[in-house]
Write a structure and sequence with these properties.
This protein has helices spanning 23-32, 47-58, 73-77, 93-100, 114-120, 164-167, 180-191, 195-209, 222-233, 238-247, 254-268, and strands at 37-40, 62-66, 78-83, 86-91, 103-107, 129-132, 137-140, 146-151, 171-174. The longest helix has 15 residues, at 195-209. The chain is α/β, with parallel strands linked by helices and 269 residues long. 35% of the residues are buried. The strands form three sheets. It has a five-stranded parallel beta sheet. The N and C termini lie far apart (64 Å). A hairpin with a 4-residue loop joins strand 6 (129-132) and strand 7 (137-140). The protein is built from eleven helices and nine strands. Helix 7 crosses helix 8 (195-209) and helix 9 runs antiparallel to helix 10 (238-247). Residues 183-266 form the CbbQ/NirQ/NorQ C-terminal domain. Belongs to the CbbQ/NirQ/NorQ/GpvN family. Keywords: ATP-binding, Nucleotide-binding.
Length: 269
């Protein structure tokens, strides 16, 4: 019989997250039922903040790994290191999460090398096992361990997509940018900029996001809107803040930058 400790009250210091649907309830149910979770959505739409918020709400330690081309299975599980003249085994973040009953979050998991998904497979079925070949251990994940992974479906090359055999091991949910009224409230809360001024930024971002797939690879993220509003609230001129947050991070193409600035000038000029 499995047992999971009752959920604690939300810590006041937990990262702020504004739900836009039933994502919090789904996360809690996946945690309670010991199911791995896959988050899909564009860059900067709140996936990482959501996981941080839920880890705090559930009272579990969180190990976040930003995946990249050079990330290996050993980076996740651990390796032997020379310490004080002795060779000692040092757990990686995935192993620590399994031992402690924490949440391991692999951000942009498709960027990691193929041997990473091989390690994840035994953890994402009813076995919930983590074999450590170098130490000879076979760790059984406790009930309060959870594996969460994420990726951006609209940004991945065909050679860097999750295999169906891996995708079907996860409960999945899609993320997108919040509705304008919700996003405006998020930006205002995070930056301190008055709500009515944030509304103009959100309206601008909505228009710029329509350029995704045409002139831009990615649309303006909620994160960049918060950065822009924060600079404006600190006293920076609007056009300067907008160029630094809504133009330069999105493209190096001078013609596209000029087009973006024209849209910004039309809004704030």
């Amino acid at each position: 019989m499995t047992h999971i400790a009752p959920l604690p009250e939300l810590d006041q210091e937990a990262p702020f997250y504004q739900p836009v649907g039933n994502e919090c309830a789904l996360f809690e149910q996946a945690y309670q039922q010991r199911l791995p979770l896959l988050l899909k959505g564009p860059t900067g739409c709140g996936k990482t903040r959501f996981v941080s918020h839920m880890a705090a709400k559930l009272g579990r330690p969180l190990y976040t790994v930003s995946c990249h081309d050079d990330l290996t299975a050993a980076d996740l599980t651990g390796r032997y290191l020379l310490q004080g003249g002795e060779t000692r085994w040092v757990d990686g973040p995935l192993t620590r999460a399994v031992r402690e009953g924490g949440i391991c979050y692999l951000d942009e998991v498709v960027e990691a090398r193929k041997d990473v998904t091989v390690v994840l497979h035994p953890l994402t079925d009813d076995r919930r096992l983590l074999p450590l070949e170098r130490t000879g251990e076979l760790l059984e994940a406790p009930d309060d361990f959870m594996l969460v992974v994420s990726y951006n479906p609209g940004y991945q090359h065909i050679l860097k997509s999750l295999k169906p055999s891996t995708r079907q091991r996860f409960v999945a949910m899609s993320f997108d940018f919040p509705p304008p009224e919700v996003e405006c409230g998020i930006v205002a809360r995070e930056s301190g900029l008055p709500h009515e001024r944030c509304a103009a930024l959100v309206n601008l971002a909505t228009r710029l996001r329509e350029l995704k797939g045409q002139d831009l690879e990615e649309g303006v993220s909620t994160r960049l809107l918060v950065y822009c509003a924060t600079l404006i609230q600190a006293g920076m001129p609007i056009l300067t803040a907008a160029r630094a947050t809504l133009v330069e991070p999105l493209t190096d193409d001078l013609d596209v930058q000029e087009g973006l600035m024209e849209a910004i000038n039309a809004t704030f000029g």
